[in-house]
Design a protein that fits this description.
915 residues, 4-stranded mixed sheet, single chain, 30% helix, binds S-adenosylmethionine, alpha+beta
C-alpha cells in the first residue's frame, strides 16, 4: 500500500531531480519504487503517500459537487495501477528508454467504473491529480482564500543548484533518506546527464538564466503537461470517468450559468452577425470608435487641390444676396491654353504702327527723310527694336564713341587753390542794383518770343537771338517745348549736387596756375557753369583794388554790362578758367529774368571728359610791352595774352577809314519789339574821328572769333555798304536769318550792324524797316577788365603785376544790347614805369567785336602798375585822350554817341564794344 502511494510522489521527486544535478537522489527503502529501478539498479524513491496526499489536500472537500464545480476530478487509482504495483512487487521492471522523461505514469485512459466498486474505491487513498499534474493553480485563487502550494517546475541547467523552494523539507529529507545511495547515484547521474543534454539549448539556457535571476511567481509559471508526459485530461474525459452521477453533477453545475449568458446564445452579436451596414469606421488612437448613427456626420471628403481663396471671403465681406442665391452652375472646366512665346528677347513690345508718335517736329522731319523707316504694309513682328531707343538712334544718328561720358573726376589729393568764398548767385553791391535798373536792358526785358511749340524756341527764337532767356513771362511755352532756358537747365542740373552734375573741377596746370577741367562730357553749346560774383560799380571796383586787393596777386574782375563789374573774388570756380587762343568754350552774358548773368558755354564742338575748359579772354592789350606770354599751346596761338606786337598795325590810310566811316554811318541796328509790333531800330552811326577810325581798323586785326582761330590773323577789309551790315558770325547769321524771317512774316524786324563786315546789299531788300524814330535806345559799352596777375601765375619778374580790368560803360543814352563784355587787361610793366607813361603807350586793341563773335568777352591789355591802373579804372580814357587808344569797329557809332555825352567828353576816345 505504501508503495502504491509512493508512485506519484516518485514522479514528482523525479521532476525535482531533474532540476538538481548535484542533488543526490534520496534513498528509497521501499520496494515500491521498482518502476524507477527498472531504469537503473537504484531502487525508486518512495515517499509516504499519506503524508503527501494529506499535505497536498488538507482542506479539500470531498463532495462530488465540489469536484464537478471545480472541474477537479478525483480519480481513484485504477486497477491498472494496482496491476502495475503488483508487477513492481513481483520484480518485473518496465524498461524505460534512456531518452524517456521520468514522469508519473499516466492513468489508464479509460477506467471502467465497474472495475472497482465505489465503496472499495473510497477506501483507497485519494490523490489530487491536478495538483500532481501542476494544473491546480489554474483553478485556485489566493484572493479566494485557497491555500495553494507554491510549487514550481524548474528548469535545471548545469551548475545550477536545485531550489526546492517551499517544498516541505521534512518530507523531502525523508524521501531522500529512503533512497539508495549507490544505485541512485548512477541513475541520477544518467538522468541529469540526459536532462542537461536535452535542456542545453539556447532557449532553455536563456530561460534558465532568466529564471535564476528573477524566479517568476508560481501562478504565472506555465506548466506544461506535454513535457511531463502526463495525459491532458479534459473535462470530457473526466466527466466520462465520473459516470452517470458525475455527469449529472456537471450538468447541474452548468445549468447554474447566468440566464443572461444563456440568452446571449441566440443573439446576433453572439453569433457574430452584424446586420448594421458599416458606412465608415472611426478610429481613435488605434481603437475603433462607435459612432452614433443619429449623430452621424458625413464622411470627410478626400482633400481637394488647393483652391485660391477669394480675398473678399477671407475678409469676411458678404457677397451680394443675389449672388449667394444663385444656383451654382455646373463648373465647366476649360482646358488651360498653353502660352507660347511668340517673340524673342523683347517679347511684349509691339512694333509701333505710328512711328511718328511721341516725336517732336524735328525728329519727325528726320524720320520722314529715312525711307527705310516709312511704315510698311506688313509690320515686323519678329524682331522689334528694344524699347524704341534703336529707332531714335536711327533718327538722330550718332557716331560711335567709347562710353566715356561717365563721370571721371580726378583722384583725391589734388592741389587746391587757397580758400575763397564761393557764391552761386550774383549779388548786387552798393549802387550796382540801381545802376542796373537804369540801364535800357532792364526795360528790354519786356520782350516776348513768338515761337510755335513745334519750334521749341530754337535758333529762330527772338529771345534767344537777343540773348534773353525764356521764362514764363516772355515765352508762351513751358520747359517741355522751350529750348531757350539754359540757366534753368543749369540750375536743375546742379541743384542736386554731385560731381557729375556739376561737371567741372579745379585742376592745377603746369604753367598757368589753376585751371578748370571737365569731368564729364558736354554737348556743343551746352551751358557748363555760371560766372558769378559780386556785381559792383566801377567806383567800388576802384576802391577794392586800392584797398582790399592792393596786396593781391590776382584780381578776378570782369565787366559785363554798362559800368558794372563782376568781382569773382567771391564767386564761382569759373574764375579759374584760363585763356586759350583756340578755346573750347565761350563766356556769354545773358539776361535772365531781367538780371544780367554770365555763363561759360561749350563751343561749337562737344567737350569730352578731362578736357581743360578755356575761352578766349579777347582782351585788348593796351601795350605791346610786357604783354603776358600765352601758354595755351594751340597751333594758332597768338603768343601772348594780348595781341602780338607785330600785329599792332599802323593806322590805315584815311581813304579806307572814310569807307569805314561811310559804312558805319550806314550801319544801323534795329531792334523791333515783336510783341508790340514796334520796330526798334538800333542805329549805330559812327562819328568817330579820323584818329579813332585808324585805331578801329587796327582793332579788327585782333578779332578773336573762336571760329576763325585756326585761320591766320589777317586784316579784314571793311567794305563800304549802302545797306545793312551785319557780322558774319554764326550768331549774327542766325540773327539775320531770324530777322529776315521775321521781316518776311511782318512780325519782327531786327537790324544789327557792326562795321566789321557788311552784308550784301541785296539784304537790303529784305531788310527791315529802319525807323529812326524808334524808341530803342542804343547803348555803347566799354568793357574793361583789370586783373592784377601775380608773378606766380605768369613768368613775369617779381613785383610785376598785370591788371586785367573789364569794364562796361554806357556811352550814350541809346543802348544796344551788349552780350560781349570786353576785357581790358592792363598788364603791369616795370614798376619804374610811370603809369601815365604806360597808359599813354598802351595800345588798345579791341578784339573781336560782336560782329564776328558777339559773345566773346574782350580784353584790353594795358601796361602799368597795378595801383596806377587800378586808379585808372578806365585807363582807356587817358589813352583815348592822348589819341593812342583804338576803338572797336563799332566804336564809330559809340564815339559819336559818346561825344554827345556831356559828363564824359573823354569817352569819345574810349574803345568800345557794341553789338
Ligand atoms: C582769370 S585768371 C585764371 C586763373 C588763374 N590761372 C589762376 O590760377 O588763378 C587769368 C590768369 O591766368 C593766367 N593765364 C590764363 N590763361 C593763360 C594762358 N593761356 N597762358 C598763360 N597764362 C594764362 C594768367 O596769368 C592770367 O592772368
Amino acid at each position: 500500500m505504501a508503495a502504491i502511494e509512493a508512485a506519484p510522489i516518485i514522479a514528482e521527486l523525479d521532476s525535482l531531480l531533474l532540476c538538481g544535478s548535484s542533488f543526490s537522489s534520496s534513498d528509497a527503502t521501499d520496494s515500491a519504487s521498482s518502476n524507477f529501478t527498472s531504469m537503473s539498479s537504484t531502487p525508486p524513491t518512495t515517499v509516504s503517500a499519506d503524508s503527501m496526499s494529506l499535505a497536498s489536500e488538507p482542506d479539500h472537500p470531498k463532495s462530488d459537487t465540489t469536484i464537478a464545480s471545480n472541474i477537479e476530478a478525483v480519480i481513484t487509482v485504477t486497477s491498472s495501477l494496482e496491476t502495475e504495483i503488483e508487477q513492481q512487487k513481483s520484480g518485473q521492471q518496465t524498461p524505460i528508454a534512456d531518452d524517456a522523461i521520468v514522469v508519473a505514469e499516466p492513468p489508464p485512459p479509460e477506467l471502467s467504473p465497474a472495475s472497482r466498486p465505489r465503496r472499495a474505491r473510497s477506501s483507497l487513498p485519494v490523490y489530487n491529480l491536478s495538483k500532481l499534474m501542476g494544473t491546480d493553480v489554474h483553478g485556485r485563487r489566493r484572493s479566494k482564500g485557497d491555500t495553494v502550494l507554491e510549487k514550481r517546475r524548474r528548469t535545471i541547467s548545469d551548475g545550477t543548484t536545485a531550489d526546492f523552494g517551499d517544498l516541505d523539507a521534512t518530507k523531502l529529507s525523508d524521501a531522500l533518506a529512503k533512497a539508495s545511495q549507490t544505485t541512485k547515484t548512477e541513475v541520477d547521474a544518467s538522468r541529469v546527464k540526459r536532462s542537461s543534454a536535452v535542456l542545453h539549448t539556447p532557449k532553455s539556457a536563456r530561460i534558465a538564466k532568466k529564471s535564476s535571476l528573477s524566479p517568476a511567481p508560481a501562478h504565472l509559471t506555465r506548466r506544461t503537461t506535454r513535457l511531463s508526459g502526463a495525459s491532458t485530461e479534459t473535462i470530457t474525459t473526466k466527466l466520462s470517468a465520473l459516470g452517470k452521477r458525475g455527469k449529472k453533477a456537471v450538468d447541474k453545475a452548468v445549468s447554474r450559468l447566468p440566464r443572461e449568458l444563456m440568452r446571449l446564445k441566440d443573439t446576433n452579436e453572439f453569433a457574430h452577425i452584424d446586420t448594421r451596414p458599416v458606412r465608415y469606421t472611426v478610429w481613435s488612437n488605434g481603437k475603433y470608435v462607435e459612432v452614433d448613427p443619429s449623430q452621424e456626420t458625413p464622411a470627410p471628403q478626400p482633400p481637394l487641390k488647393k483652391v485660391k481663396v477669394d480675398e473678399k471671403a477671407v475678409k469676411g465681406e458678404e457677397k451680394p444676396a443675389a449672388e449667394e442665391q444663385k444656383p451654382a452652375a455646373p463648373a465647366v472646366k476649360k482646358p488651360r491654353a498653353k502660352k507660347w512665346l511668340e517673340k524673342g528677347l523683347y517679347a511684349g513690345q509691339e512694333t509701333p504702327l505710328d512711328i511718328f508718335k511721341g516725336l517732336n517736329s524735328q525728329e519727325k522731319k528726320k524720320l520722314a527723310a529715312l525711307p527705310e523707316l516709312l511704315p510698311s504694309s506688313k509690320p515686323n513682328h519678329t524682331f522689334p527694336l528694344p524699347m524704341y531707343n534703336g529707332l531714335r538712334v536711327l533718327i538722330n544718328g550718332r557716331d560711335f564713341k567709347l562710353p566715356f561720358d561717365v563721370c571721371n573726376p580726378l583722384p583725391p589729393g589734388q592741389p587746391k587753390p587757397a580758400a575763397y568764398r564761393t557764391m552761386t548767385k550774383n549779388r548786387f553791391v552798393g549802387d550796382a542794383a540801381s545802376y542796373w535798373k537804369k540801364t535800357p536792358h532792364f526795360g528790354d526785358f519786356a520782350s516776348r518770343c513768338v515761337c510755335q511749340p513745334a519750334d521749341g524756341c530754337d535758333e529762330d527764337c527772338q529771345n534767344r537771338i537777343m540773348l534773353y532767356e525764356c521764362d514764363d513771362t516772355n515765352c508762351n511755352f513751358g520747359t517741355a517745348h522751350c529750348q531757350n532756358r539754359a540757366f534753368q537747365d543749369l540750375q536743375e542740373r546742379t541743384k542736386k549736387g554731385g560731381r557729375y552734375r556739376v561737371g567741372v573741377e579745379v585742376v592745377k596746370t603746369g604753367d598757368r596756375g589753376y585751371g578748370v577741367r571737365s569731368n564729364r562730357c558736354f554737348e556743343a553749346n551746352q551751358i557748363i557753369m555760371e560766372y558769378t560774383g559780386e556785381i559792383i560799380t566801377e567806383a567800388e571796383c576802384e576802391r577794392r583794388m586800392n584797398e582790399e586787393y592792393k596786396d593781391n596777386e590776382c584780381y578776378y574782375l570782369m565787366s559785363f554790362d554798362q559800368n558794372m563789374i563782376i568781382d569773382a573774388t567771391t564767386g564761382s570756380i569759373a574764375r579759374f578758367v584760363n585763356h586759350s587762343c583756340s578755346p573750347n568754350c565761350r563766356m556769354i552774358k545773358w539776361i535772365v529774368a531781367g538780371q544780367p548773368r554770365m555763363a561759360l558755354f561749350a563751343g561749337d564742338r562737344p567737350i569730352m571728359t578731362g578736357e581743360e575748359l578755356t575761352y578766349d579772354y579777347n582782351f585788348d592789350p593796351f601795350s605791346a610791352k610786357n604783354v603776358q606770354k600765352c601758354l595755351c599751346g594751340s597751333p594758332n596761338c597768338r603768343g601772348v595774352l594780348g595781341p602780338k606786337p607785330k600785329e599792332v598795325k599802323a593806322p590805315k590810310p584815311p581813304k579806307e577809314e572814310k569807307k569805314t566811316k561811310k559804312t558805319s554811318s550806314k550801319t544801323s541796328r534795329v531792334l523791333t519789339k515783336v510783341s508790340s509790333k514796334a520796330t526798334i531800330k538800333t542805329s549805330v552811326k559812327p562819328s568817330a574821328k579820323t584818329s579813332t577810325k585808324r585805331k578801329l581798323k587796327d582793332a579788327f586785326e585782333f578779332d578773336g572769333d573762336d571760329e576763325e582761330d585756326d585761320k591766320p590773323i589777317k586784316k579784314q577789309k571793311v567794305k563800304a555798304a549802302t545797306g545793312l551790315k551785319r557780322t558774319l558770325s554764326s550768331a549774327t547769321r542766325k540773327v539775320a536769318k531770324g530777322a529776315a524771317k521775321g521781316a518776311a512774316n511782318g512780325a519782327a524786324t531786327i537790324k544789327r550792324s557792326v562795321a566789321s563786315i557788311s552784308m550784301a546789299t541785296k539784304k537790303k531788300s529784305i531788310a527791315v524797316k529802319v525807323t529812326k524814330t524808334a524808341t530803342t535806345k542804343t547803348a555803347k559799352t566799354s568793357t574793361t577788365v583789370r586783373r592784377v596777375l601775380g608773378s606766380g601765375a605768369s613768368k613775369k619778374g617779381p613785383g610785376k603785376k598785370t591788371t586785367v580790368v573789364v569794364s562796361t560803360k554806357p556811352k550814350a543814352k541809346t543802348a544796344v544790347p551788349s552780350r560781349s563784355p570786353s576785357l581790358t587787361i592792363v598788364a603791369a610793366g616795370s614798376s619804374s614805369l610811370p603809369a601815365q607813361k604806360n597808359a599813354d603807350k598802351a595800345v588798345s586793341t579791341p578784339t573781336s567785336s560782336v560782329s564776328s563773335k558777339k559773345d566773346m568777352p574782350k580784353l584790353t591789355i594795358s601796361s602799368g602798375a597795378s595801383k596806377t591802373s587800378s586808379r585808372k579804372l578806365t585807363p582807356s580814357r587817358k589813352a583815348l585822350e592822348s589819341g593812342l587808344l583804338v576803338g572797336s569797329p563799332s566804336s564809330a557809332k559809340s564815339v559819336k554817341m559818346t561825344a554827345a555825352a556831356k559828363p564824359m567828353p573823354k569817352l569819345k576816345l574810349v574803345a568800345t564794344v557794341v553789338n
